[in-house]
Amino acid sequence: MIFSETIVVLGILTVVLFTIYYVWAKIADSKPLPGIPSVTVWSSAGFNVLHKTSPNVPESEQIMGWLERKCIELDTPILQIRTGLPGKPNLVVADSVETQRILTNILHEFDRRRFLAASFLALMPYNHMTMPTNDEWRANRRLIAETMSPHLLLEKNKKSAGRSFEVLADTFGVMLDGIVGATFGTDTGAVKTQLKFIQDFDGVAPIDGNRGFANLPRAPDPPLLDALVLLMWSLHIPTHPLGGPFFHKMAMRFVPRYRDALALVRSYLDDIIKRAEQKRQQLEENEELDSSTGVDLIVKHEIELAKSQDRAPYLHSGLLRDELFGILFGYDVLAIMAIRGLKILTTHQDIQQRLRAELKSTFPEAAAAGTVPSAEKIATTSTPYLDAVYEEMLRCVGSTPALVRTTTQDVNLMNHHIPKGTAVFLLTRGRSYTHRGTDDVNVGEKSIGDASKDVWTGNWPPEEISRFDAERWLTLDGDGRKRFNARAGPRHMLGTGVRACFGQKQATSVMRIFFTLVVWKLELRPIPTDLARFKRADAAFVYRAKEVYVSPQAFV
C-alpha cells in the first residue's frame, strides 16, 4: 500500500517537475533577439487571422499580409514575431537576395520538413513532397484542354443578362479537374456538372440589388471537391497557437465531417492506384501502355524499384497514396493563380489584348481556321509574352506568401545570431519583390555580393517595381527577337533550388493552357470597380480571394 502510494506521488512529482521545466525553457526561449525589429501579435487562428490590435488594423486580416505590410512600413528586411505566448520568436525575412542565399547556398542550415509535418501530418503522414519530375512525366494535355475550355463561362454569360457573375467556386472545380486529368487521366465531373446545370437552367439569373451582379445558381459540387475544400480549410487547426498536429489528428479521427472527408479522399486514391496496378498486370512482358498518366508512371516506377531491391512494391501501404494526395492538393494553388490571373486580365485590358494578338500570331494556322491551338502545341511552343505575363502574375499574386524553414543549427542571418530551432518565414512578395527597400543594396552586399545580386534581382527601377509589367521578363536576343528571361528578377513563390515545388513544371503547363484558352476564346470585359477589388479570404498561409467576378463574351 505504502509502495503504491509512493509510486503515485513520484509520478505526480515527475509530471509537475517536467511541466515546470517545460514552461521555464519556453520562457527562457522567449527573450527577444537583439537588434531585430519586433512586432507582437495575438491571433485566434494562428498564422491565419489577425484580430484588431490597433485602430489602424482591419478587424480580420490575413496575418502574412499584415507582416508583409509591416516590413514595408518599417523598411526592414528582417522582423521578429512575438505571439504573447512563451517560446522562441519567429522570424520574417523580406529580402529576395537573402532568401535566394538560404534556398540555394546554405539550405543545409534550414529545414522545411518540420513545418510541413506539423501542417500535413494528420492528412498525409507518408507524404515526402518528392515526386518524379523527369522527362518521363507527361500530363494528359488533351483532357486538361477539354476540362479548361471556357464553354462553361460562355453558357453562364447567356444567363446573366450581360452582368458580371461570380466564378470562384467554378475555378476551383476547373483546376481540380485539370490536375486530376493530368495525374489520373480522368476527371471528377466538377465542370460537367455545372455546365449541364446551367444549360438546363431556365430563364435569366436575378440581379443583386446592391452591387449589380447576376446571382447565378450552382449545382452541388462533386463529393471529392467538397471533401478537398474542407480538408484544405482544416489546416487552420495545426497552425493555431493553441492547436497543433495532435489536435488536427484528433479532428480527423473524431469529428465526423473531417473524418468522412479524409476517408473519401483516401478511398478515391486507393481505387486509382488499384486500377493503375491492374493495367500494368494485364500487360505482356516488356509491353508498355499506349498512353501513360502520372499515376501509371508512378506505379511503374515503384514496381521497378521494388524489383531491383528484391522486395514487394509499396503500392497499398499508404506511401503512394499520400504522395498522390500531395499532388491533388495542388489544385488549390492553381486555382488561386487562375483566379488572380482572371482579375489581372480583366483590369489590364491592354495586356489582355496584346496577349491575344501575340497568341494569334504564334499559332497562325489555328487562327486562320477559326479553331484553338491543340494543348500539345500550347505546352511545347515558345510563347515569350505568355510566359512573361504568367511570371508577372506569380510575382504580383504571391498566392503562397511565405516559404517556411526551421534553422537546424545556430546561424548568422544578416549579421544577426539566430539560434537553432527558430522558424523563419521567407516572404515571397512585398518588400524587395513588389516594393523596393532603401537598404536592399546593403543587404545584398552583406549576403552574396553584387554579382549574384544582379543575376537574381534584375535592374528594375524602384519606382516601377509595384506596377504590373510583363515586359520586365523579356529581353532581346542577338537577332533582335524578344525572349523570356526567368532570371530577370526575384521569383520565390514556388521555391527555388533542389527543394523547390516539385510540381512547378506541371503547374506551368496547366496554367499556359488555361490562359491561352481563356484569352483565345473570350473577351474579359471591364467590370465595376466594386466587383474588381481583390479581397483576401482568411486562410492558412495562402492568399485566397473572397470573391471573383467576370463579364466574359465570346471573342470572334
- Can you tell me the CATH superfamily of the largest domain? Cytochrome P450
Please report the first level of CATH classification, the CATH class of the largest domain.
Mainly Alpha
Number of domains: 2
Major sheet attributes: 6 strands, mixed
Mean pLDDT: 79
| Strand percent estimate | 5-15%
Q: Helix- and strand-based class?
A: alpha+beta
Shape: globular
Question: What is the terminal-to-terminal distance?
Answer: 92 Å
* CATH fold title of the largest domain: Cytochrome p450
Question: Which percent range fits the helix content?
Answer: 40-55%
**Low-confidence segments, ≥5 residues, pLDDT <50?**
43-60, 129-139, 441-454
CATH A-level architecture of the largest domain: Orthogonal Bundle
Helical region count? 22
State the strand order across the main sheet.
1-4-5-11-8-6
- What is the radius of gyration? 25 Å
Q: How many β-strand stretches?
A: 18
